[in-house]
Specification:
Structural class: alpha+beta
Largest sheet: 3 strands, mixed
Oligomer: single chain
CATH topology: Ribosomal Protein S5, domain 2
CATH architecture: 2-Layer Sandwich
Strand content: 15-25%
Helix content: 40-55%
Radius of gyration: 12 Å
Number of strands: 3
């Protein structure tokens, strides 16, 4: 995860899922899981986030995914 200040008021998120994750179905599933998990994570207002998905995102337990995102956001603060 990478973050930078944003000119917008709320947080904005960009997702990157490269071919290393697998075919288009697996890449889209990874992005959908991250979007859903982000509902459980509080993002800082006025920040842009870029989340780079890894192979583990597709098959990891959902609670693990939420934990990874929370720790990544905390590390950026």
């Amino acid at each position: 995860m990478v973050a930078a200040p944003s000119p917008e008021a709320g947080p904005r998120v960009g997702l990157v899922a490269g071919r290393g994750i697998g075919n288009a179905v697996r890449r889209n599933r990874a992005k959908r899981r991250i979007r859903h998990a982000l509902r459980e994570v509080s993002l800082e207002q006025g920040m842009d986030y870029v989340i780079i998905a890894d192979r583990q995102v597709v098959e990891a337990d959902f609670q693990d995914l939420i934990g990874w995102l929370r720790r990544a956001v905390e590390a950026l603060r």
